[in-house]
Amino acid sequence: MKGVRPAGRSLMKSIWRNCMIRARKSDLEGFLFIGDPHLSGRRPGLRKDEYPKVILEKLKWCLDKAREQNLQPVLLGDLFNYPRDNPNWLITRLIGLFSKYQVVGIYGNHDCYANELTDDDSLMMLSAGSHLPLLSEDNWMEMEVDGRKVILAGTPWGKKFPPSKKTLKERFGSMEARVVWITHHDLKVSVYESFGRITPRAIPGVDYVVNGHLHHPVETVEKEGTRWCIPGNIARVKNSDATSKAKPQVLTLRLIEDSWKEEYLEVPHKPFEEVFHDSIRPPGVVEELSGTVVGLRELLTSKTNDGAMLDDFLEANFESLELSTEVRQEILKIKEETANEWKE
User: What is the per-residue burial (b if ≥16 Cβ within 10 Å, else e) of 21-50?
Assistant: First the structure.
């Protein structure tokens, strides 16, 4: 049929192309950045609590805190843990929540099934309905803070970053604005050095880069006037040693007398032991069995409703099998399709 958009193709370019978003409030003092909520209608990663309700409450706490402190709330990607098949009640709750606040953000790798956001992804419904404006090089938010023009732009997962000097000059060079940029990328910082792809560096004209995607906070890195912040995420998804030590937090950024002030706020949360099941190990493992066979037996005896044990098994064996990135992605995609059949 002529005029009908083929399934899977994205509305992104037609919805938010060359769009400048104005802040609703004229007296904002800065930003509150929210990392990776990973919302889901089912429990991920051996969580034993009412995960959807708990994370929605955390998200609401963040938005209330932003309003209370007169800050613009910003999502750093991965609003959803699964890109599709999220329950209608969850989408409805988010629409109701976002209608009370002007939230902006970018999409992350968990938000899209393909290499970019498409019509079939849950986040597209929020974007197409103008409930969550998505930022990019072409679609930025403009506001005035402490008498200075401030620009908030972003680069979603999978898109090239940083932007070229030419792009920055053409977009913002004549504005005399303070520029803050949000991303959802693999940065080469601290404990993420081994698989990071982007090394923090100076970006002329950009004061701050605030990155989602990396779940555990990393100390701010400064490179010749550009500060790179990794606040971590607000949702503890996996049962791991690193997660057991993590404290969900958000980053606030205020412009005061032409200088930025960073502050981290801890998000209310329960102790690790109260929200996660213990890692399960089958009794009487036979030593002669290879690690792979033992792992497969563990999967058969320890199923979770989102395949959390399968995630652990795959990650543990990817390195030993020396699989390429492309093969890993295909395996994970098949795993995700299969896990959808297990949901409650």
Answer: bebeeeebbbbbbbbbbbbbbbbbbbbeee
What share of the chain in percent tops pLDDT 70? 77
Question: What is the average pLDDT value for the chain, to the nearest integer?
Answer: 83
> Buried (b) or exposed (e) across 78-91, using 16+ Cβ within 10 A?
bbbbbbbbbeeebb
- Over residues 65-89, the pLDDT tens digits come to 999 999 999 999 999 999 999 999 9
Domain spans in the chain, listed from the N-terminal domain onward: 12-266, 280-339
Residue ranges in 111-157 assigned as alpha helix (H):
122-128
Q: How far is CA 36 from the centre of its chain?
A: 3
Nearest to 110 by CA among 323, 271, 336, 334: 336
In Å, what is the CA distance from 22 to each residue of 25, 152, 210? 9, 10, 20
Fold observed for domain 12-266: Purple Acid Phosphatase; chain A, domain 2 (3.60.21)
Distance between CA atoms of residues 328 and 108, nearest Å: 18
Residues facing 47 on adjacent strands:
276
13-59 pLDDT, tens digit each: 544 455 788 887 778 999 999 999 999 998 887 888 899 999 999 99
- For residue 153, what are its two tokens? 């732009």
Do residues 264 and 251 lie in contact, with contact meaning Cβ atoms separated by under 8 Å?
yes
Q: Let me know the angle formed at the C-alpha of 187 by 13 and 121, rounded to the nearest 5 degrees.
A: 35
- Pair 51, 43: CB distance under 8 Å: yes
Widest distance between CA atoms in the chain: 70
DSSP 15-67: HHTT-EEEPS-S---EEEEE----B-SS--TTB-S-HHHHHHHHHHHHHHHHH
Number of H helices and E strands in the chain, helices first, is 10, 12
pTM: 0.79
Could you tell me which residues come within 8 angstroms of residue 174 by beta carbon, excluding any fewer than 6 positions away? none
SS3 state at 314 = helix
Helix (H) or strand (E) holding 72: strand 71-75
